[in-house]
């Protein structure tokens, strides 16, 4: 029985080649989108799931309460004094692991004589305590996890890092490297390759008791926080996150200054990867909302593909009427016919699955490249993917095949054999039209979303941030005392390089993600101001290099110490001053650290991304805090200028690796996720349009078959070809118009909500919707025109011959 079902199904598939080809392309595209999305989502939801104690692991976050705002902010950095209190104040915790994370850390590989053999700049440099391995499961290939970090100046390397440093990872044990050109670290263990699905992307992991990080273990500072220092804890069985948060908050009330209202909260490990507001160590984040959106897009595109199948199957129904009539006359019942048609659908779905597998193998690495994720085609071989594929095949077969099987098996054999079959049932027509409308609701919705996202991305790229960002190279330099003494020589030599127009030194960039925030005392007041400000150290060339605009006063004078301050307009607003000039010559004090008068007020510039409002900012001179050079280049022959900078760097800092980055590239990185989202949406919108066009092609085919005699009669009565084409195409335009009317308000609501994440954003103009509608109508008419013109050109003698 099954053999005959499949044999008959295969013959019908081969008999209708064009119909089969369109269905296979449609279903194959829809299934491949679902497979790619499933692999992408599985990669994200699997992050740090391999730890055996994952349900009891929590990250400590600092909850910041600003005195002048009801808003609450969160950060992964904690005060240095907190971890040492956990053992005594929350003794029920099974383990806690403070973690230092260094950015752009200098690593030097030493030979047996202590000489430098290789130089690297690494982001994956961490320091922690042995208790880290009591919480997390990161196996070692060589060495013992419990003792490897027990002694200061001991370090673990990953297998890949050991191979980069020493060639053979097996020979790395006992070798030495130097961190920050100061601390010599001995290799005491080799870690197994770090899984791709973890936020802990280690390269170098050394003992927290080493050098300048040793003080973090014994600090009594419970108020200052920094993003480089965090902590994970292992809670006992039965303790909830809310209970742990309550204990942490009680602990902070005990140790933190009374005026400091910040507190600590516990975040489950399962939420760390999906928190886009607080950084994780991998800098790979995706929100739960984004995952739900991907699921929705995948489901919609698959439904579009199934709708195409339904439309094409019903369009072919008239051609198979006699077959159904003969089968029924020969004794076939309706359930047997339904099984036959479902089997045909199943065969087409299986062929489509093979096509989708090929598409997915090519698409997954491409999606991985776009989203900068380690996605590989071998992820399709996972058991979960196989199970999902099986479910997908069954669901698609039932959704795509059920309605056509009901229609085809329900033909009256007498009418079918007399060739008097016609689809005049209002339900059939309304359902078919509704399916096409549904397709274009999705397609036009994706088109509108894509246009809005692209326009917002263009806004990010072309809107002025209030400072010069083009052709400025940033090079970080070592900030130890010996290196600081070389800065005057470095800057003088840099200005002499051909193509270098200006050079400035600063602690940070004008817009950054790792800003330092502070409170200050204004105009000799007794108390500090009730708001935080970004504090940057920069020389007198900072303002002209970045072309920052002064609205009052002057630029700071050259100085190696804190003497004068620049503030921005946001500070003036926070202070409640009526005009910028009112702040000039008023004194600012940063605790007992430094004092100086305000000599200038800067026009607000975007010192963070467009997601945020202008932040209050202070700028002052302090040479020993500078850490980055800002070099403005001429547009001509930049590569030669950069080579000159590198040559000078190697002369001044021969022990350090040279690395540079353009300012505009750094700013573009702020919107990496949005840029990736834009590219993904464009791809999905293109697929949705393609599949919707296949659906229109099916409806046009159905119309051409059903209304062939009407066309003949109209031509006999004098209608022109253009009039007939216009009459039939008008029906499609109406369907697309209905789809647009449904899609437009829904999309406006969703995209307006998305744009609320950005303080500075585009307006959703009515022209966007007009453009989307024109695109949809144009593509749809181009799709159906072939079938409509073909129907209009039919000789009326042939179409009316049976009459």
The portion of residues forming beta strands comes to 15-25%
Task: Calculate Rg over CA atoms.
Answer: 34 Å
Summarize the main sheet.
13 strands, mixed
By secondary-structure content and strand pairing, the structural class works out as alpha+beta
Question: What would the principal axes of the Cα set say about the shape?
Answer: globular
Helical coverage, percent range: 40-55%
Mean pLDDT: 84
Low-confidence stretches: 423-429
* Termini Cα gap: 41 Å
How many separate structural domains?
3
Q: How many helices does DSSP assign?
A: 24
How many strand segments? 25
Provide tags for this entry:
803 residues; alpha+beta; 3 domains; 13-stranded mixed beta sheet; 16% strand
Architecture overview:
The chain has 803 residues and is an alpha+beta fold. It folds into three domains: 2-43 and 286-460 and 673-799, no CATH class; 54-272, no CATH class; 478-655, no CATH class. It contains 24 helices and 25 strands. The strands form three sheets. Strands 1, 2, 3, 4, 5, 6, 7, 8, 9, 10, 11, 12 and 13 form a 13-stranded mixed sheet that branches. Strands 16, 17, 18, 19, 20, 21, 22 and 23 form an eight-stranded mixed sheet that branches. A four-stranded antiparallel sheet has the order 15-24-14-25. The longest helix has 38 residues, at 334-371. It starts with a helix and ends with a helix. Mean pLDDT is 84; it is low at 423-429.
């Amino acid at each position: 029985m099954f053999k005959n079902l499949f044999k008959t199904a295969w013959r019908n598939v081969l008999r209708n080649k064009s119909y089969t080809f369109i269905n296979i392309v449609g279903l194959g595209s829809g299934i491949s989108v679902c497979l790619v999305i499933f692999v992408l989502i599985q990669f994200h939801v699997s992050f740090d799931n391999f730890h055996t104690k994952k349900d009891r692991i929590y990250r400590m976050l600092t909850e910041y309460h600003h005195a002048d705002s009801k808003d609450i902010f969160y950060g992964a950095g904690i005060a240095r004094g907190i971890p040492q209190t956990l053992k005594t104040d929350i003794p029920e915790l099974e383990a806690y692991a403070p973690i230092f994370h260094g950015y752009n850390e200098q690593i030097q590989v030493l030979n047996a004589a202590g000489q430098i053999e290789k130089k690297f700049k690494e982001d994956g440099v961490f320091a922690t305590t042995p208790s880290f391995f009591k919480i997390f499961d990161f196996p070692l290939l060589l060495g013992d996890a419990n003792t490897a970090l027990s002694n200061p100046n001991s370090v673990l390397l990953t297998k890949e890092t050991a191979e980069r440093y020493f060639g053979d990872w097996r020979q790395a044990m006992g070798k030495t490297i130097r961190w920050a050109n100061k601390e010599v670290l001995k290799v005491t263990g080799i870690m197994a390759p770090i899984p791709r699905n973890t936020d802990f992307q280690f390269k170098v992991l050394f003992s927290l008791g080493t050098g300048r990080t040793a003080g973090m273990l014994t600090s009594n500072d419970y108020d200052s926080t920094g993003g480089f220092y965090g902590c994970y804890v292992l809670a006992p069985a039965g303790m909830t996150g809310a209970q742990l948060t309550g204990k942490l908050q009680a602990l902070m009330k005990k140790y933190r200054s009374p005026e400091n209202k910040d507190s600590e909260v516990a975040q489950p490990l399962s939420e760390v990867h999906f928190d886009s507001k607080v950084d994780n160590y991998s800098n790979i984040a995706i929100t739960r909302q984004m995952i739900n959106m991907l699921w929705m897009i995948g489901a919609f595109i698959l439904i579009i593909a199934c709708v195409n199948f339904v439309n094409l199957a019903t369009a072919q129904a008239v051609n198979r009427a006699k077959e159904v009539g003969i089968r029924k006359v020969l004794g076939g019942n309706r359930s047997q016919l339904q099984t036959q048609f479902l089997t045909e659908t199943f065969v087409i779905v299986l062929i489509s699955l093979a096509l989708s597998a090929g598409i997915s193998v090519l698409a997954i690495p491409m999606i991985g490249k776009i989203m900068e994720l380690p996605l590989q085609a071998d992820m399709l071989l996972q058991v979960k993917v196989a199970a999902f594929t099986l479910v997908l095949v069954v669901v698609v077969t039932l959704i795509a095949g059920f309605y056509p099987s009901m229609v085809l098996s329900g033909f009256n054999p007498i009418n079918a054999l007399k060739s008097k079959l016609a689809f005049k049932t209002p339900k059939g027509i309304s359902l078919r039209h509704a399916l096409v409308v549904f397709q274009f609701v999705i397609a036009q919705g994706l088109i509108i979303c894509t246009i809005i996202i692209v326009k917002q991305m263009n806004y990010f790229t072309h809107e002025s941030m209030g400072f010069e960002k083009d052709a400025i190279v940033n090079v970080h330099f070592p900030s130890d005392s010996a290196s600081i003494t070389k800065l005057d020589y470095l800057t003088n030599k840099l200005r002499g390089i051909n193509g270098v127009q200006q050079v400035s030194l600063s602690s940070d960039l004008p817009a950054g993600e790792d800003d330092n925030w502070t409170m200050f005392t204004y105009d000799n007041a007794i108390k500090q101001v009730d708001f935080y400000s970004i504090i940057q150290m920069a020389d007198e060339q900072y303002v002209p290099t970045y072309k920052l605009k002064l609205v009052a006063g002057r630029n700071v004078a050259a100085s190696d110490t804190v003497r004068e301050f620049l503030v921005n307009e946001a500070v003036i607003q926070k202070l409640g001053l009526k005009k910028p000039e009112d702040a000039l010559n008023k004194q600012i004090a940063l605790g007992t650290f430094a004092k100086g008068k305000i000599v200038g007020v800067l026009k607000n510039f975007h010192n963070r991304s467009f997601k945020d409002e202008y932040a209050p900012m202070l700028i002052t001179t302090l040479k020993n805090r500078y850490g980055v050079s800002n070099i403005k280049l001429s547009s001509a022959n930049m590569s030669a200028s950069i080579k000159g900078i590198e040559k000078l760097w190697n002369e001044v800092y021969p022990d350090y690796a040279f690395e540079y980055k353009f300012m505009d590239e750094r700013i573009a990185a702020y919107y990496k996720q949005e840029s990736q989202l834009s590219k993904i949406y464009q791809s999905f919108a293109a697929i949705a349009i393609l599949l919707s066009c296949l659906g229109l092609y099916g409806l046009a085919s159905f119309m051409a078959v059903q209304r062939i005699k009407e066309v003949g009669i109209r031509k006999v009565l004098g209608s022109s070809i253009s009039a007939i084409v216009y009459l039939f195409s008008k029906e499609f335009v109406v369907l697309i118009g209905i789809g647009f009317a449904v899609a437009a308000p829904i999309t406006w609501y969703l995209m307006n909500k998305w744009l609320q994440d950005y303080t500075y954003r585009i307006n959703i103009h009515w022209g966007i919707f007009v453009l989307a509608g024109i695109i949809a109508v144009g593509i749809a008419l181009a799709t159906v025109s072939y079938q409509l013109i073909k129907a209009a050109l039919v000789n009326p003698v042939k179409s009316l011959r049976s009459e």
